[in-house]
Amino acid sequence: MKSTIVFVLTFILALMLEGLVFPSDLVWYKPEWTLLVILYWVIALPFKVGVGIAWFLGLLVDLLQGGVIGQHSLTYVVVTAACASLYKRLRMYRRWQQSIFIFLLISINQLVGFWIDHYTGDADPTLMIFMPALVSAILWPWLFVLLRSIRRLYSIQ
């Protein structure tokens, strides 16, 4: 019960951060908060958080951002499945090595999202689509330490 409350609170906080409005000049520098939190919990507790939760949170992000329904669900499921299949290996990496892997996963998220946006006519080709992945990778070590300390504080296993 305690673990469920902590999961829900971390996901709510991530969704709140996802909903922050950035100035139009800085919109490319917005991290993928919800996906980062999902990836942490998949690495830490892969049997409690998985593809189903990623799909649901993706739908919530779609509703929050007003985009194509199912776009974030699809990308979150793809990235979460990739992370879940490699979680044992990721646990052994140092934080900076995990950041590189997080960059690659969120780049896949951004690329698939761009393809969907391009197909619907909402996106122009630019390499800036990878900037959220870079910002998220830079934030990963600090987010990892924060969420790990929360997990240890409440003895979630």
Order of helices and strands: HHHHHHH
Gap between N and C termini: 12 Å
Give the overall shape, derived from the CA principal axes: globular
- Which class do the helix and strand fractions yield? mainly alpha
InterPro entries: Cell_shape_determining_MreD (IPR007227), MreD_proteobac (IPR026034)
Transmembrane segments: 33-61, 99-116, 128-147
Family: Belongs to the MreD family.
Protein name: Rod shape-determining protein MreD
Question: What keywords describe this structure?
Answer:
single chain, membrane, 7 helices, 0% strand, globular, transmembrane helix, 157 residues
Short recap of the structure:
The protein has helices at 2-18, 33-44, 51-65, 71-85, 87-92, 95-120, 131-153. With 157 residues, it is mostly helical.
Structure write-up:
The chain is mainly alpha-helical. The protein has one domain (30-147). It has seven helices and no strands. The chain has helices spanning 2-18, 33-44, 51-65, 71-85, 87-92, 95-120, 131-153. It is globular. The relative contact order is 0.16.
Tell me the layout of helices and strands.
Blueprint (H helix, E strand, L loop, with lengths): L1 H17 L14 H12 L6 H15 L5 H15 L1 H6 L2 H26 L10 H23 L4
Helix pairs in contact: 1-2, 2-4, 2-7, 3-4, 4-6, 6-7
